[in-house]
Design goal:
The protein is an alpha+beta fold. The protein has two domains: about 1-40, no CATH class; about 50-79, no CATH class. About 25% of the residues lie in helices and about 15% in strands. It has a three-stranded antiparallel sheet with strand order 2-1-3, with no helix packed on it.
Length: about 80
């Protein structure tokens, strides 16, 4: 099990490159200033892969009814 981190989570997002950045004030690819992602410790800033999203939607549907999974986590259009 990983260490519990209770300090600030310095996650940022580059809208131009559509990439997460950790503790960086400038995107290393395009040089733009990333936006800060607010997260309350102990957050877990990891990407949600398609299988993760499908599982979360299924659990939501099982608990609350068919279709609620997509209501909570809609499809995200690609840029």
């Amino acid at each position: 099990m990983g260490a519990v981190r209770l300090g600030k989570i310095l996650l940022r997002w580059c809208d131009h490159c559509d990439l997460p950045l950790l503790e960086e004030n400038e995107c290393g690819i395009c040089g733009s200033e990333p936006k800060k992602v607010e997260m309350t410790p102990p957050g877990d800033p990891k990407p949600a892969f398609p299988g993760d999203v499908d599982l979360i939607r299924k659990v939501i549907d099982d608990q609350f009814g068919e279709g609620y999974g997509y209501a909570v986590i809609p499809e995200v259009s690609k840029r």
